[in-house]
């Protein structure tokens, strides 16, 4: 039987009340979008009703993950809404804590893409960036809360089956529905509105909107009205957004707001383009974000922008040679564009303030808002971690390249506008090859890692490295680093590029897990090994037109001096044989039988089974009744 929007709302609130009566804490993920807004509205109303009925209400949570690159207008609306939620909960004495989290350094886009060179997630690829930037930080925070809380936590998510066929398949795979709480590896998730249509979502939002003269048709909630949210969705949908309609005339007010240059939602960001098209005075400041996104999209298949230095080393001591990452030139180019975009936004805000002061623009709330920069994507801390990554990977022959660019753009007026380029044609990815870096691994005396610092008489010891639970920047360290670079700006050419990563550790600007120290040292060693090979050999290639000798690039050198996948497989077999000779000396079958079996091809390891359990939501009604009777 099809339920009306009002019936779905009442049923959802009833189910939440039963969960709360069963002594579960509820945590609602909140992004500011329409679906997560509905989940928060329903959760707060269930809590308010229980409170009004004189029943016990456990502590609950509203959790937001700031990716540090969210769409600016949505981010501004979100901050205002979170403030209103705090006021609403205080007014109604609801035990709700608003928790905002950010990705760790290792999960930030600035570290993964600009620092390490990992490719952004393009259409059709897994959105592991969402895991790094949103899901993992919230799961980590939920675990901390559970450790301190007497109640187990159920997390509400605003996923709906009708959003897309892809979303429906994913929800069906994990058996997510409005009638079941899915427990995977001890984490409980509830898709409260999985059966809701877009009409139902907007119907509730409109029903909870009111004004001083006209109270809401349904009940009041944390925002007096949701006009600002509706305007964002309408403007992102070419100005069309019918909020109340029948099933035969389903609306198009389902625009999606991702990160500022999210690529996974298609060739174009239609929502952001529509916003700017609808009102350039209001949203035009975001135009550079479209240009940056388009540039990223157009270089997807440009292999001249790829780094063939793979990130994996085999058991035989060979580095995988494959174009899986952006190369140094492209990483620096992208950083320069983003810093320039930041500075241009700062200059736009200053000019807007001048017009405001001179009464050249109307004194509206939005114009007042535009007098301040609406975003900043590259911070001092970002510059530090990017230079740390570039130094580890020996990306440049100069020290502090990221800091130098930051200073030149912010202080000296350099500008790097995003160019308009044609989309690179789709090409086949070359087969992977393997380059011998075994001499870099056993701590060869001629190969430097992390443990030397200029002047050469000083040494970086493990005990001097600040250790923590994850890679992190100590508070104020980004500013300290930029100040140090500014003071030595005209002497940077005297500093070896590899010293930046050591200085960051020596000065305790950056801390890391003890288990990662050797990993980063190995990364520095193998890149230093390749760099020194290039220096000592000065490899050349012949110009096919003039016959002149030309210097090889690192990528060309690696490809020219590497072995094929098949040759590498033979080396791996020999490596395994040596390991097995010691292990199987007394084995009845001998080494040959084991190696032969390995060469026949081991089956791919089965994916690790995840502990999954389903709980029927309606079961909590009986539990809640028992608890009520006991009380």
UniProtKB/TrEMBL annotation:
GO molecular function terms noted in the UniProt entry: catalytic activity
Highest taxon in the source lineage? Bacteria
By its UniProt entry, which Gene3D superfamilies does this protein fall under? HUPs
> Which Pfam families has this protein been placed in?
PAPS_reduct
Q: Taking every annotated instance into account, which residue ranges of this chain make up the domain Phosphoadenosine phosphosulphate reductase?
A: 27-206
Q: Which InterPro entries match?
A: PAPS_reduct_dom, Rossmann-like_a/b/a_fold
State the protein's name: Phosphoadenosine phosphosulphate reductase domain-containing protein
**What species does this protein belong to?**
Vibrio thalassae
